Amino acid sequence: MxxxxxxxxxxxxxxxxxxxxxxxxxxFCSVSLEPALVLVCIAKTAQCHDAFLENDxxxxxxxxxxxxxxxxxxxxxxxxxxGGGEFVPxxxxxxxxxDAAVLIECEAHERYDGGDHTILVARVIEVDVDDRPAVLYxxxxxxxxxxxxxxxAL
Length: 154
What we know:
Blueprint: E1 6-7, E2 9-14, E3 20-25, E4 28-32, E5 37-43, H1 49-54, E6 57-62, H2 68-74, E7 87-89, E8 95-97, E9 102-114, E10 117-129, E11 135-138, E12 141-144
Protein name: Flavin reductase
Domain Flavin reductase like: 1-144
GO biological process, one term: pyrimidine nucleobase catabolic process
């Protein structure tokens, strides 16, 4: 799968005690336009897995190149993911990264078993798009998104 380039997201919620919880994921995609649905997959072994089962309020942040260190922290088991002060709680108490390339406010639509992962399908409530390009993950490394369209692009 490392040969398939993908964007990088930070998925966040709050647990039943109001503590921020989150994980990094490249398994993110659009599911439906009407209603607007997206999906993200979380490992069942993730420390924050139960928080995403208990709370229906989520946020998805699409990372930009300035967030590589933050993405690495979110991808590290046992790391203090929210210790850097980059996140603030939104009106629902969900931690959000205000300078994300894209910030998606969402809520649970459905959860599915996906082997060693849980597939989280989210209904999109609001989207805030910044002007900075998203970062790509490709061949086990981060890459900048080239802004020059290819000939014949859709």
